[in-house]
Amino acid sequence: MLGLMQNWPLLCHRIIDHAAIQHGCRPVISRSVEGPIHTTNYAEVRQRALKLAQRLERDGVQPGDRVATLAWNTWRHLEAWYGIIGIGAIYHTVNPRLFPEQISWIVNHAEDRVMMTDLTFLPLLEKLADKLPTVQRYIVLTDAKHMPQTTLKNAVPYEEYIAEADGDFQWKSFDENTACGMCYTSGTTGNPKGVLYSHRSNVLHAFMASLPDAKGIRACDVVMPVVPLFHANCWSLAFSTPMTGASMVMPGPKLDGPSVLELLEKYKVTFTAGVPTVWLMLLQELEKTGGKLPYLKRIVIGGSASPRAMTQTFQDKYGVEVIHAWGMTEMSPLGSLCTLKPEYQELSGDAKLDIQAKQGHPPFGVEMKITDDAGKKLPWDGKTFGRLKVRGPAVARRYFKDDTDILDEEGFFDTGDVATMDACGYMQITDRSKDVIKSGGEWISSIDLENLAVGHPKVAEAAVIGIRHPKWDERPLLVIVLKKDQQASKDDILGFMKDKIAKWWMPDDVAFVQEIPHTATGKIQKTVLREQFKDYRLPTAAA
Amino acid sequence: MLGLMQNWPLLCHRIIDHAAIQHGCRPVISRSVEGPIHTTNYAEVRQRALKLAQRLERDGVQPGDRVATLAWNTWRHLEAWYGIIGIGAIYHTVNPRLFPEQISWIVNHAEDRVMMTDLTFLPLLEKLADKLPTVQRYIVLTDAKHMPQTTLKNAVPYEEYIAEADGDFQWKSFDENTACGMCYTSGTTGNPKGVLYSHRSNVLHAFMASLPDAKGIRACDVVMPVVPLFHANCWSLAFSTPMTGASMVMPGPKLDGPSVLELLEKYKVTFTAGVPTVWLMLLQELEKTGGKLPYLKRIVIGGSASPRAMTQTFQDKYGVEVIHAWGMTEMSPLGSLCTLKPEYQELSGDAKLDIQAKQGHPPFGVEMKITDDAGKKLPWDGKTFGRLKVRGPAVARRYFKDDTDILDEEGFFDTGDVATMDACGYMQITDRSKDVIKSGGEWISSIDLENLAVGHPKVAEAAVIGIRHPKWDERPLLVIVLKKDQQASKDDILGFMKDKIAKWWMPDDVAFVQEIPHTATGKIQKTVLREQFKDYRLPTAAA
Question: What is the enclosing helix (H) or strand (E) of B474?
Fold first, then answer.
C-alpha cells in the first residue's frame, strides 16, 4: 500500500524559488571579475536565472545537454547553475586549475554544448577552442562594456544574452532523478571520471548538509563560499545557503589573504568554507596586519586535512569554531563533519584538538563501513584502519559513460581512502588505499609516516611509498626534500622518528631528493614517485 | 538523462539505524505507565524494534496492514513505531481522548489488525472490543508482572511477545512511497479522515523539521516530546530526534505541571514541544513553587495559538526561547515555525512579541499561498487574509479510502484556515475558513473578535458566528459566557470593543449563554452553535 502524500519532486530550482519567496531581499554580494563589488538578492538571482533558462531554451539547449561553466564564484555563476538546471540541462563545472589538455579532455568527454566562462579564462579557451568541437556557443560572464574581441564561436556577453529574454518563463518539471550537475574527479591516475548528480541527490544532500550538527546554516548567517563552485559541487553551498535563506558573499577571483579578509570584515561574514591553503594565506595576512575576525563564527575546513596548528589558531587566537570536514566529488561531496557530539562536548585543549583532527561523523543519509581487502567489516575502535566505503542517496553509483556500477555487493562505494572509525562514530582518514604500505599482511599508513617526518626541523617535504620486499611483500621507503641549505643523514631522520611509532612501521630506508612531483591541484603524485623508484632495492631486501 | 547516483530509498527505519550506529549510547528515558523511570538508548530501541518486527511478521502481519497504537509517549511506543514500519506495516496512532464511538469508528475504518495499548486503556478497550471485529490481537505495552486479567482477544504483554523473537532480523526494503503511518483528523464536522503518511514523506518532513531555523535539534540536545505520539504524528519528534541524535525524555502518562517540571529538571531537558494547555499547567506549577527552568533553551508551542502572555512569560521570566509553530495532521504536521529571520532579529519587547504571535514561516519543502474564494492569489502585506493553501512532499494528497484528490488545480491543499502572509513570508492564522464571517464580500475574522471580547474583565468565553443577513449576506453575532456571578449588558461589551476594531467588524448583536459547546479535544463547536442560533434574527436585519 502506498502513502497518500503529494507528488512533489525534489527539484533543485525549487530551492531558489524558496529563497526568492521566503528570503527574497537577502543580499547576494560578489566581488566581480571586472573588479567592483556587486550586490543583488535571491529574488533577482531567481528572476535572472529564469531569463537565462528561457534564453538557453530558445537557443536549442535540450534537457540532458551539458552546459560547462569555467568561472569563479559570483552571482552570475550562481544564476547560471539555476538557469541551466531549470530546463533540465546539466551544469558542468570545469576546474580552471587543471592542465589545458585535461580541460579539453573533460569538455570533449562531457560533450558540452555551451561554455559559460569568466573573462579570466578567455585566453585559455581561445587557445583550446579548436580542440572543443562540441561547444557551439561561448557565453562570457560579463556585460557589453567589458566584452573584449574574441575568436570564440558565437561569443556573447552574458548580460546581452539574458537581456534578450523577458523572464516570463516557468521552470520545467520532471522526474527528480533527472541529471542536474556534473563534476569530474581529478584523480592521480587514469583519465578524469565524471560524476553525474541528480536533482534528488543535490536536494537531499543540501538537507543533510544543512542539519544543525553538519553546517547548521541559519537565515541570520552570512555565508562566504571560498571553496569554488567548480570544486566538488561547491560543498553544497550553492544549494544549502539559499535553502536556509542565509546571505551570500561570493569572493570572485581573489582568494588571496588580503582580499578574503576584506570581505570577511566588510560584509560581516559569519560562516565560511574552503581548503587549508586558502586559510593559510588568511592566517598569514591576519598575522601580518594584526587583524581580527570579530564576525566569523564557524569555518569549514576540508579538501585536505586541516593541520592541527590551523585548527588551534582559528579557535584559540581568533575565536572561530573549526569544523573539519571530509568528502569526495563522488559524494556530492560531504561525507562527514567534525562537530562535537555530547561525548566530546566538554573537551578542551589538546584532547579537543585530537578529536578535531578526525574528519568527523556522517549525517543521516551517509552510511560508512571500513573493511579489509576481502571486504570483511572491521571494528570501530579508533585504531583499526581499513578501506572506507560509503552508501547513501547522494553517493555516486556509476561514472558518466561507464557501463558498470562501482558498488560492492552491499551497495557501498569504495572511497579509495583508508580510515579508522571510533566508538562514537567519528571517522579519521589514515591514508589512500593505493598508498598504504602492505607489510606482512598488516597495513602501514604512509600519511602518518609523512606527518611524522615533516616534524623534523630540517625536513621540507616527505613522501612515503611502498617498495617490493621478498619477505614482507612491501616495506616503506621515506622520500625526503630537505629545507634549503640543510643537511641530514638517514640516521638523523630515523632517529627522530624512533619511539614515536611501532617498530615495524619504521621506514626501511630514506631517499633524499631535490623535488617531489605534484599534480595540478597540489597533491603528491605517488604514481610518478613509485615509477621513479620502481627499481629501487631496499637495504633490507637481501636479508 | 538521469543522474548516476545511488538508489537509496528514504525509509523511516534507516533513521533508527542511523541513531543506533552514530548515537547508540544516547539515553532514551521514559516515565513508564507502571510508574518508575526507565532508561534505554537508541541501540537498544533499535534491537527491540527488530524483535517486534520479527515477531509481528511471524504473527502474519503483512506489508500494508495497519497496527493501531493507543499509548502514551514511552520507549515501548517508540519501538512499536519502528518495529511496525520496518516490515512495511503501518503504525496507526489512535487518540485516546476521542469519544469511544469515534475510536471504534476510526479503528473500523482503518481496519486495524493488531492493537498495541497501554495498561491505561484496557478498561476502555474491553468495553469497545465487541465493536472492533478487525482487531485479531491485543498487545499490552507492559511486562508479564504487570499484566492484568483481560477479556481482550489474544492479549499478550509486549515484553513476552518480543521475547519470543531473537532479533536476528533485517528490515524490509521497499519503495519509499510505501505507506508508513496513519493518523485521523478530529474534524469538527463529519467523520474523521485518515491521513496516510509514506516513508518518503516522513523522512523528508524530518529533514525539514530539523533545519536550524525550524526545530534545530542537535545531538547535544535533550528533547522531551510532551506532544503525544498520537497527536498529529508527534510533530515529527519520533523521527527528527533520532535523526539528529539527541537524547529523548518521554513523559509517559503524566502531563500535569509537577510531573513535567520534574522531568525537565531531573534530566536537564533543553528542548520540548507541546500544546498551550500543557504549558499553562507548567507555568502554574512554576509560579506555585517558585521553580526555574535553568536547562530548557527552546520550547515549541503549537496545536493552537500560543497566548501572548505565555510567550512573554517563558522568554522574559524563565529565559526560554519560544518557537510558535503551526501545522496540521495533513501536513505531517509542520507547516511553519516562528523563528526570527534577520529582518526581525533585533526586535525586543512588544515588537518581538508581535512577530512571535504569528505562526511563522515555512521551511524549504512547504509552499504557501493565500487566495480568495475564487482561488485568486492575494497579496503578502500582513493585512489581507485569505484561504491558506499548502503544497509539498509531506502534505496529504487524498484521504484514506477516498477516491478523489483534495488538491486545487495547482496541486495545493486547502488547510481550511484563513491567514495573512507578510512581506517577510510570515504567516498568521486569523480564522478557520468555515468560521470567517462574510459580510458584503469582505471577510471578518471571528477569532479576532473573540480574542478582543475575552479581554473584557467580565467575560469568561466568547464565540463569534455569522448570522444570515438580507443585505450583507452575513453579520457577526457575539456569543458570551460571563464569569461566575458577573453581569454585563450588550452595550457594556460592545462599548469595550469600540475603537479597537474597524466599525464594520462590530458584532450586530450579543447573546449571553450559560455554556458554549466544545469538542472532545476542547475546540469550540461552532457547527453546534450555528445550529442553536439558526433561527436567530439580528436586530439589524430589518433595517
Answer: strand B473-482
CB contact under 8 A, B244 and A407: no
Catalytic: which of A330, A339, A389, A526?
A: A330
Q: By three-state DSSP, how is residue B277 classified?
A: helix
CB-CB neighbors (< 8 A) of A391 in chain B: 6, 8
User: How would you list the strands of the sheet with A114-117, edge to edge?
Assistant: A156-157, A137-140, A114-117, A66-70, A90-93, A179-185, A193-198
- Residue pair B370/B376 in contact (Cβ under 8 Å)? The answer is no
Nearest to B520 by CA among B230, B94, B95: B95
Nearest-CA residue of chain B relative to A24?
B424
Counted residue by residue, chain A has a size of 543
Closest among B132, B130, B140, B134 to B161, alpha carbons compared = B140
Low-confidence ranges of chain B (pLDDT < 50): none
> In the numeric block, which cell numbers belong to residue B374?
475564487
Q: Which of A75, A326, A380, A443 is catalytic?
A: A443
How far is the CA of B437 from the CAs of B416, B448, B531, in angstroms?
14, 11, 16
Determine, for residues A391 and B207 on separate chains, whether the beta-carbon distance falls below 8 Å: no
The ipTM (two decimal places) reads 0.93
Residue B299 identity (one-letter amino acid):
I
Residue B58's Cβ-count burial label (10 Å; 0-12, 13-18, 19+) is: exposed
Instruction: Please report, to the nearest 10 degrees, the dihedral formed by the alpha carbons of residues B89, B95, B96, B101 taken in order.
Output: -90
| Residue of B207, B342, B362 with shortest CB distance to A219 | B342
- In angstroms, the first-to-last Cα distance of chain B is 69
Q: Cell numbers of B469, please?
A: 443577513
Percent of chain A with pLDDT over 70: 99
Enumerate the residues of chain B whose CB falls inside 8 A of the CB of residue A213.
218-219, 244-245
Q: What is the number of H-type helices and E-type strands within chain B?
A: 15, 24
Task: Return d(Cα A280, Cα A278) in angstroms, integer.
Answer: 5
**Region for residue B190 given its phi and psi (left: phi exceeds 0; alpha: psi -120 to 50; beta: otherwise):** left
Pairing of strands B193-198, B114-117: unpaired
DSSP B221-241: -EEEE-S-TTSGGGGGHHHHH
A4 and B392 within 8 Å at the Cβ level: the answer is no
Tell me the three cell numbers of residue A32.
566581480
C-alpha of A65 from chain center: 24
pLDDT band at A518 (very low <50, low <70, confident <90, very high): confident
pLDDT, tens digit, for every residue of A294-330? 999 999 999 888 989 999 999 999 999 999 999 999 9
Could you read off the pLDDT of B416-438 as tens digits, one per residue? Answer: 999 999 999 999 999 888 899 98
| Closest of B486, B498, B496, B494 to residue B539, by C-alpha | B494
Is residue A330 annotated as part of the catalytic site, yes or no?
yes
d(CA B247, CA A463): 44
Tens digits of residue pLDDT in B261-271: 999 999 999 99
Angle, helix A13-22 to helix A199-210, in steps of 10 degrees:
50
Locate cell 527491540: which residue?
Answer: B48
